Amino acid sequence: MTQYTEYDDVLEGACPFGGNKVGGAQTSRPTLQDWYPDRLRVEQLHRDGAAANPLRDLDYPAAFATIDLDELKADIKKLLTTSVSWWPSDYGNYAPQMIRMSWHSAGTYRIADGRGGAGEAMQRFAPISSWWDNGNTDKSRRLLSPIKQKYGNRLSWADLIVLTGNCSLEVMGFPTFGFGGGRRDAWEPDDAVYWGPEYIDNMNPPSGDAMVMRDQRWTGEPGSDDYELEQPLAASHSALIYVNPEGPEGNGDPAASAVDIRITFGRMAMNDEETVALIAGGHAFGKSHGQVSPDRIGVPPDVAPMESMGLGWHNPQGKGNAEDTMTNGIEGSWTPNPTTWDNDYLENLFRFEWEQTESPAGALQWKPTDATAPTTPDAHLEGVEHPLMMMTSDIALKVDPVYRAICERFLADFDYFTDQFSRAWYKLTHRDMGPKDRYLGPEVAAEDLPWQDPLPKAEHPVVGDAGIAKLKQAVLDSGVSVSDLAFTAFSSAITYRDTDKRGGANGARLALAPQKDWPVNARTVPVLDALRRVRADFNSGAEQVSLADLIVLGGCVAVEQAAAAAGEPVTVPFTPGRVDATDEQTDVPTFEWLAPAVDGFRSYQMDDWATVAPAVSPEQMFLDKAALLRLSAPEWTVLTGGLRVLGCNHDGSADGVFTDRVGVLTNDFFTTLTSTDYEWTKQDEAGTAFTLDDRETGAQLLVGAEHQVVAAGRVGRHRVHPRRPRDRRAGLLGQPPRPGVRRQPAAARRGRGVRRQRRARVVRPGLRGGVGQAHDGRPVRRQEHLTHPAPPRSPCPAVRGAGAPSCSAVPVRRGRGA
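^ thats the sequence. predicted structure below, dont judge the formating
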């Protein structure tokens, strides 16, 4: 035993720095997340930052423009038909497996929050790279390495994966609708997206498909009235892209499978016709692989040993590939010509009756009952034929009456089917890219499509400096308050989400259905009427301005006035060029998904939030919205404080405003929130609302609410308990809210209370959603109560769920959710 009697004793031992045992290093567990699993993970706002990206200064559009697209496509098509020994191609053509790779890259997209999709090539990173449904896509990407090396930084992995899917369709005779480049790669895994509540220890799974689970994401049973998939999820199972091809729970029930298909594809923004087109079109090619039992397949890439060279799912049987390949467990092809675009899939599905059988791996699948039915060639063994195969999810198209009618239409008109599949594929692979003007390259489809949220071309030059000055004065003369101007501009921009580039101020869709009818936007209605009058008067002159530009400019005016009133005059930058969308250009059902369930910026929360999301706190949803806006933690914090002092609560209440100078841009919110002069007192057992009581006088200063005050004040701090808040649209003790601040006794105001000293200038980060990547103004609001009829309940982006879209991915510790 070392006595450590002298300093040199500390340095003794096998290790250069002393001692004989090293117990851990950077990232070794337990980490902060192990100690405090329910903390608010604000640091996730900074993931995939500049330090992680070696190409952060690359002008990717300019680099991509130097590529000869015809040459690139020729290189890809040559690779597709050049088989290699370490992973031989089926039928001498890699195209079918590359379609699967491309499809699965894009197929993670979900409309609830715009997360997933092909836009950043996240298929390269955990957890997606190691999902069971992505088995052997690692081989597909590795096969593409020579192409990526040739074109280097001019071609992102994200663009290469999608373009390879297009080229694969084309080499098999399918006419694609178009291709747009412009996707930029992520450079690290996403540890924040909520992919569902199910979890296993992936270091020692009982079998390769053990991660495929659905027991916590669904309520009810297929066919029951309460059957529902929790939001914001789209996939029917963990570790799958869409649905279990064997049916829910692998039960082989085609009718139940049809229900799951409709829910899952609908959550991925596909209607019934697009759904059938994608399934029938995709299954015209290639085969499924199921030669080996899942319990014999090795671990996925992200836990594979070093000698696997980044590849996973080691298959010990036979060659481990070719005729011994294993992916999802189902074995066989749907058509006699798996590398040719034709209508054989649908013709076979409807021409024959089908009966259940098993694959060599034990998976449930279907074969024709007619012994004279066509056969399909083995993908590798010359002269060997196999029965045709269908999955339960294929038979579902025949059983479901709506899907069946669509199939019959496609059967009767192959050209129409071809067109619908080409359009659905284009949507699948481009849905998360945002407006069409972000697409790059000569193959961008000319047609404007509804899912692209199209905008009209500007019909007049952007307003100049003189016009802007004139408009600013007209806005001031309109009589609209600073708070109302700021609130309206913020409400116009707050719908933006960086995940799929939807929403934002451009288009002025705040003035259109459905946004104009959302309760949270009720206060903007009279403001928009006033701004329309300003616009009409201005546009009668030589220059023209859009309502979208005027809304944002009004927010800029509001911030300038508020800062001047605080003794800190500023000029807020303004970039004109926005246009106004029309009702015809606005797909109301898909815009309903942008409606907020919780909006911490404007102190809004849907009435029954605690019922539909018992395990998701409003703070998590507040963080989630900050992430969708791509805000940093400082930007999120300063926006919240600025909006509060400008009076931005959606209902005009004083909860959490923390100032007696509403409409003046001060730091009163922060000085009060962090002051130890006040004691916070819970107003209910759950701690959903608080009063601030002066420690010396006992005077009550303000009313706080957890989702609107504590969420902001806890930036960088952990959350101790899940919250189950009530509706915040009432003031203290349920009394009707009223503008302004609850007043203190004069003595208390003189000695403490809302601080006036050190009036810090609040830096105002810009709002996205303007012209290209230009920043709009970031504002706030205050006003007397407004009433507005509530529209029908919209599909709430993140309710009825076990977790917020960007909540923790660690094992669940308090019921369903993170």
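The longest strand covers residues 689-694.
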